[in-house]
Amino acid sequence: MPESNGISLDVAALEAAALRNIVEFWECELDYSNADTEPLSFHDNSIAAIRALIHVAEIPLIDSSPTTLMLLSDVAAINGHAFLYDGHGVAFYLIKRNASPFYHTVFALHEILHAVHYRESSEFAFDTKAWKKNTGRQLISEGISTVLCALVLKCELDIALWADVLSIEERNAWMMACEHSKDLLCKLVLDNFDDSAPIGLFEYEPNQSPQINRGGYWLGAMFIQELILNGFTPEALLAAKYSHLRQLALHWLEVNCTT
User: Fold this and answer.
1) What does pTM read for this prediction?
2) Percent of the chain with pLDDT over 70
3) Are residues 112 and 148 in the same domain?
4) End-of-domain residue from the set 78, 95, 120
5) Strand order in 88-95's β-sheet?
6) How many domains does the chain have?
7) Does 129 reside within a domain?
8) DSSP per residue over 136-183, as a string?
9) 190: domain range?
10) Which of 120, 155, 172 marks a domain boundary?
11) Residue 49 near residue 107, CB atoms below 8 Å
């Protein structure tokens, strides 16, 4: 079920490409036991929320961009991501059976923003596992999608990072733990910037410290927020070359690393 802005792409080919991406790059086996006999039918409210989001005119970054969103049944243990397909940014999103429409809105938008980013700056798109796992690439691209998601939805950063996965108290505790771990996170990213990210830095590991429970998302968002405060526009961030943002990120990490 694609949602696009006037782009005619083959639905079957796009779905096949998305499923290949899941298997090849996310190390997931496809499991159709969670899929509906009538795909996505029980998610009417969630799909309506996503459709409304895509077509909101006040989101120029999405409304004017040649991006397509593939809504897939829950066949793998990831939310989704994005890739380039004949020069188009394609986001794919797996709709989870028990998640709320608000959850789907936040994380579908996050993936859409990855697709827009990859289209505007194709260096950030990956076609190898090594580049997909690269710490610097993930820090910057996840930071951009997270911060722009918060700007589009006009919500706080903790909402863009977690939607309603965590309670308010849990989100506040996690954000505070990230702040207290900022120096450690900066050092961890600096030490691994051009290598694969340590396990957990960009993955959900419940009841763990931020260094191994999505702390990379928070740190990336802090970096991108500072760039915006210093005059970067969302459009400039999306179009910036990796080499330029890499240089800025390394300097920012060094400044914020006190050990």
Assistant:
1) 0.85
2) 76
3) no
4) 120
5) 2-4, 67-73, 88-95, 80-85
6) 2
7) no
8) HHHHHHHHHHHHHHHHHHT--HHHHHHTTSS-HHHHHHHHHHHHHTHH
9) 134-256
10) 120
11) no
